[in-house]
Design brief:
By secondary structure, the chain is an all-alpha fold. Helices cover about 80% and strands about 0% of the residues. The protein folds into three domains: about 180 residues, Growth Hormone, Chain: A (Up-down Bundle), CATH 1.20.1250.20; about 55 residues, no CATH class; about 190 residues, Growth Hormone, Chain: A, CATH 1.20.1250.20. The chain starts with a helix and ends in an 11-residue tail after the last helix.
Length: about 450
């Protein structure tokens, strides 16, 4: 690749790494934050939840801004926002200030990850886009895996403040690199963003995500009320966006291929979060130690990182839908293998298959499809919306699986059912394959 494209690729990878790593970087420091902030044990977990919720809410707005004002401007702004949030969190203060700072970080990350994907679709040759999207997926997966160990070292030897301060220079580097490596926008539509529509979207998505979060924590009344509120907002959002000037959804049509792609994204994310329950199964069902139960996830993580990259290569060669279908098939087979084979062998083989499937699903093919199905000039919005549906799947998955506990065999069979549903969606997408739009 020419030097300019190589520099751009490194910028995009660093931006994706920054946004992905920070979600899990603080996990080892949550107990220390609880103590330092004088809050009840476990309250620090809301720092992770707030990040995920605000990130999902910010995605469609960031995508709309990227399509209207150019990806370079929004990407740089995202890096600056992220760095500001990291600095505010690292300087300490009250627990409320930490929550606010995490929200600012999440808004910044929402501007980085989907716009990096959209820029791959616009700036690189069509023949290599699948491979590069797979590379982005591998970077995301690697960041998620290595972030907790790095966080543990920082907490042990530098203090919990450095969980946030360490990302400030990285965010500054991403912003500076983007200024010099992003190409000037080919076409910018500086139309105003529908503010009421953006607020309705934020309220709708946020309410559903908060509802899933409270259900996961066992608070049934609040969880159900929040979910119902979010669902009641959906028709109002739909009616408003049909006639709104500057709608953040533009001309995205969810009734065809895009809707199926988003459904597949939701199912893929729901399959991925099965990993949350693996350590619990390893300890209770197989009598693993805590250390062994954590290591049990390594086969899944390694397989996912590898197939995310390989899936991009295959996407370029045979198209996205066969790769997507193969991913869901592996997820289904892996989910059934764990209870059928049983024991350590069943867990190891099942997690290898599930990890390989998740890597294919969450890597290149879905993003490739969405870029190809997006209306011209709306690639950022289309990719951002995929991220929102994935966030909903990530939030809903634990609630679905928890309903099958303590019967672990049924839990893994439920994951297999998610894989079968995704396979059907992929087969329905078979006739919608198109190459990515140039803008």
């Amino acid at each position: 690749m020419p030097t300019q494209r190589t520099a751009l690729l490194w910028t995009l990878m660093l931006g994706v790494f920054l946004g992905a790593a920070d979600l899990n970087l603080i996990a080892p420091g949550l107990r220390a934050i609880d103590v330092a902030s004088h809050v009840s044990a476990g309250a620090g977990a809301w720092l992770v939840s707030v990040y995920g919720i605000v990130y999902a809410v910010g995605l469609p707005i960031a995508g709309a801004l990227g399509d209207r004002h150019g990806r370079r401007l929004v990407f740089v702004g995202g890096a600056v926002l992220f760095g500001l949030g990291s600095l505010l969190a690292g300087l300490g203060g009250s627990f409320g200030m930490l929550l606010l700072a995490r929200g600012v970080q999440a808004l910044g990350a929402a501007n980085l990850i989907p716009l990096a994907t959209a820029e791959i679709g616009a700036a690189f040759p069509k023949s290599r886009r699948g491979a590069l999207l797979g590379l982005m997926g591998a970077v995301y997966g690697i960041a998620a895996v290595i972030a907790p160990p790095i966080g543990g070292v920082l907490v042990a030897y530098a203090g919990w403040h450095w969980l946030f301060l360490v990302t400030v220079p990285l965010a500054a580097a991403v912003a500076l690199l983007a200024l010099f490596t992003f190409p000037a926008p080919v076409e910018v539509r500086p139309a105003p963003v529908d503010v009421l529509g953006a607020l309705l979207t934020a309220a709708c998505v946020g309410a559903m995500l908060i509802g899933f979060e409270f259900l996961r924590r066992g608070s049934l009344p609040v969880g159900v009320a929040s979910l119902v509120f979010g669902m009641l907002l959906l028709p109002n959002l739909g009616f408003w966006e049909r006639s709104a000037s500057g709608s953040i959804f533009g001309s995205l049509d969810l009734r065809g291929g895009l809707g199926l792609a988003y459904a597949a994204g939701l199912l893929g994310a729901a399959g991925m979060v099965l990993a949350f329950f693996v350590p619990l199964y390893a300890m209770r069902g197989l009598q693993f130690s805590e250390v062994q139960s954590g290591l049990a996830l390594l086969p899944m993580a390694i397989a996912a990182a590898l197939t995310s990259w390989l899936g991009g290569e295959f996407t370029d060669r045979i198209g996205p839908t066969p790769v997507l279908a193969a991913g869901f098939l592996l997820l289904a087979v892996g989910g059934y293998a764990i209870p059928v084979l049983g024991g350590t062998v069943g867990l190891g083989l099942g997690l290898l298959l599930i990890g390989a499937g998740v890597g294919l699903i969450m890597g290149a093919p879905l993003q490739y499809l969405v870029l190809g199905l997006a209306p011209k000039g709306q690639s950022s919005s289309a990719v951002a919306m995929l991220g929102t549906f994935r966030a909903l799947g990530t939030a809903a998955g634990p609630v679905l699986y928890a309903s099958f506990l303590p019967a672990f065999s049924q839990l893994f069979e439920a994951a297999a059912g998610v894989g079968i549903a995704g396979l059907l969606a992929a087969l329905m997408l078979w006739g919608t394959r198109r190459g990515p739009n140039p803008v």
